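pipeline/complex-builder :: batch 7 item 3
reading input block
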Amino acid sequence: MSRTRTMSAVNRLTLLGTACLALLLRPGTAPAQSIDYGASEALFGEPVTASATGKPQRVSDVPANMEIITADQIRRSGADNLPDILRFVPGLDVRRYGIAAADIGVRGYARPANPRLLVLVNGQQVYLDDYGRTQWYALPVELDEIRQIEVVKGPNTALFGFNAASGVINIVTWDPLRDRVNSVTARVGTQGYRELSAVGTAQVANWGGVRVSAGGFRARDFDPRGQSAADRASRQSPQRGSLAIDGRARVAPGVEVVLNASVVNLRASEQAATVYSSTDYYRTNAVRTALTADTRLGLLALNFYRNQSRFSYQGKSVSGDIQDTLYVAQASDTVKLGTSHTVRLGLEYRNSSATASRDFVGQVGYEVVSGSLMWDWQVTPTVSVTNAVRLDHFTLNQSGPLLAVSGFTAADYRNRAITEPSFNSGVVWHATNQDTLRLTAARGLQLPSLFDLGYQRASSVDVGSFKIPVYFLGSPKLRASAVSNLELGYDRALPSLNSSVRVSVFAQRTDDVITDPAGAVPAFDGRVARLVAANTGHSSAIGSEIGIRGQSPVGAEGSLRWNLSYAYISIADQLANTTYALQDFQHGTPTHVVVAGGGYSVGKLELDVQGRWQSRFRDYRASAAAITAASTVAASPVEIANYVQVDARAGYQVTEHLTLALSAQQFIAQRLVQSAGPPVERRLLLSATARF
Amino acid sequence: MAKDHRPIGRTASALGTAVAVAVFICASSAFAEPAPSMTGRDVQVVARALGFLQPPPSNDAWVAVVFAPGDTASRQDAERVAALFGTGLRAGHAVLSARSVSADALASAGNPAALIAAIGAPVGVVMAAARLGHIICITAALDQVEAGHCTMWVRSEPRVEIVINQAAARSCDLGFAAAFRMMVREL
């Protein structure tokens, strides 16, 4: 009897579930799409995005400070890499440490292996969980397959979760279902640079498409003058190889399935998070499957992916390796309720674990379970209010024998949990047809990285004839760092100049700044020294950005475009128990940055130039000889004088399908000191691109 | 209480002048080519917006630009708007053509994919036809959409604006892609 009743209940539940699923997946009646970027952009005459709130929006409507770099801008930049494209975005700082090594900070707080920036490709995380950092040359994307790069300045954790503490950069590629992109680019240049990149798309009727991209380069790295002899010896020339496949199919009206995979191999000499120089090897791979459905209950999205990275570093003073595997499952539903309200519900599960032969003992990992809610209210035709909240629950795990000297026990790891809320709120007011005001407030979170939590490495220093043991220790007791941001933005269209002006003013405070083991103050107990990761205080920033961007009217014989911007930021650190480099945000951020550029197209010729001047800042460098008895770990400050970088490109469309371009990067000086790494050399690149 | 001491003659004179100026302006504008109710960019926005209908227009779809019977200005406006479609405008995977149709000939006009109400067109008739054919009614007059007499209003300058009356859309049994609905204003 009981069993019969149970079976009946199961059957009812199954029937109910099936009915619900059928209702959920019942589309309007015909092909639809989650976001058709191309059709939407053509309709509204401006880029569209879902990177601000998760809701599809016109960029002029987003309640965030967002810059979108289009495929045209990428092409006209002449750059062969993402950091040199992002360098000219107001509010972004790029530190270059080699020909295949650069770090990017949003509104200051740049540092080697910056963990405050969330970088995604089509919504899939591409930053590395070990340090929470991004190796820009290890991204599985070719420049020719990028539709747009979306840059969100300011915390956006309520939508994206941890690491979106100072900003988000989402790279959106062409949609193989709707966009047919076929190109081959060959590029040669100074520094022995040789690059080949290809993108091909195959489409089946109106229901399926596959894009395959592959690329790679070899080069001789910049002359490491100024580096120690030991560090010079450890540097090897960079090389990269990448293969990615992105398939999408419309399996039913309104229902699309995505399957993609990628693999990247990279060798690069770079400045590690610990500011030591080393040659690093990356082997990353990723697989992802996703489903989007345009249903009567809104835009339903399911997303699953796995990222794997094998990273090893070999320097004269440091070497090691880390293997990291990340699993992510995400589900969301974005639905418009009535005529004025849009709600997005999101659930996320993350599981990350890492092993290392020398840096961790055993395995270190974490799980995060998150729930988020976004509510967008169109209050009046000209005013909208958006609120988003998210709750993350983080649990830490560790296996393997801990170093006894660490003072931490297995229980410290096993019982460690962090539960933190984050939010984003914004009001957008289209005051007139020309004027838009934007007021936003946010609280974002930076999760301690696996390195911060689980690093356990024994080392030693020679003091005369003595050897002093030194232990670098992550701490399971770290708290998440919280970034609060308040911002007022104003956009003004200038139809008479076919231009727009953007002004923003912001104030930001970072609490519980995380100092990783390499930045901690050594604690001596007479026999050994310990450097333990800790939360070390807070840092505040105020800043503003003003810029104008415009172009000559469509239809003009020649097309002229221009941009000019100025960014100001002032940072004050209130930190204790930290030694150097990683936490010297106050001096490590250029206060003033001016970006100016222009371009002209006439007939088959395109000419573009972009220049950036930035004021001085302080970087740090540790070398093989820097470990001294006095400070155990020491890094030398390197004062980077103000400098100008100018990039230019001249492109000529030889035939309908073939374009030749000559570009020059950093061509003002033969060598320019931009960081504590080797001086950045002038680069000349000649490229031939066939599009068909 | 203050009194107006202006002589009636002067008031009449002022009124007469005003009427004369108004008549002159009207007469001048009668000889000038009146601007169509939609611009080339407006109809491009219309066509692209139709691509987000569920289902979107099929390949051989066409748009009827409806005018008031016996109203020359209305007919001329419809012809001008229809001409803006040229040899066809892309709407999703379809290419839309257009032709002008008198409101009293709508029943025998075939099966247009959408109806655009020209200046002076009897929008009530247009909307009734839209309901009957389960197709969309489009207008350049926002008040008609606000009143629920038509389904969609578009404007391309200075910024693309699209307003959809949901009740009117429902009465025509119309649906739009969810993402599109989130990027336009609904009433």
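note: Residues 8-31 of chain B form the longest helix (24 residues).
queue -> next item
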